[in-house]
Amino acid sequence: MAKLVNKVAVITGGSGAIGAATARLFLNEGARVVLVDIDGEALERVASELDSPDVSYVTADVSKAADVQEYVEHTVKTFGKIDVFFNNAGIEGVVKPVTEYPEEAFDKLISINVKGVWLGLKYVLPEMNDGGSIINTSSVAGLAGFESMSAYVASKHAVIGITRTVALETAGRGIRVNTVHPSPVDNRMMRSLEDGYAPGEGATVKKGFEASIPMKRYATNDDIAKGVLFLASDDSKFITGSKLVVDGGMTMH
Questions:
Q1: What's the pTM?
Q2: Is 152 tagged catalytic?
């Protein structure tokens, strides 16, 4: 039987590679899905590719409270409820040592990766059904340090703290709140980071990252989506405040 029958899911970062892969998997498992992203054209393209009457989308800046309230209201108006929240929107920022990291780039990243996660929780939770599931996207960068990525690493550590706090606050309602921690994933964000580490030499950087992963490859978008599905479904109904690490063994040490 499909794992998300009669469930309504909200996915932020919905036009990104992981968001779109997760949306497709959720739809295949019986969910109705609302995609949220700041890039309206990309959202429209992803929704068109998904080609399902069970998909809706909202253009929103997750760091703005009014936009967050709007996507929550849209979901309830369109599909009547919220059962699953994949709190996934995030940006990678720039690759610079802390002494050279631009303050405005730091502020923008924290506003999306931390405040955006927090605002999503603040406004989704009052509308979420008891027994629902929230999955916040962290990273292997939430479990370790990575050179020249101070803002991103800080933001992904912060997501763990928010998750643990909200897991305590919502346990009485049977709502689970967990984090997913991808290794490098073979998508646009990693191309950006690879080029940031060594402009024009991204392929060499990729080989270095792959060598640090015991399974010797990047994750696929579907690898991450399948982990998110587990946390979204009733298969994880007694798991909360936990970290699901999907990294091919990268951070086991």
A1: 0.96
A2: yes
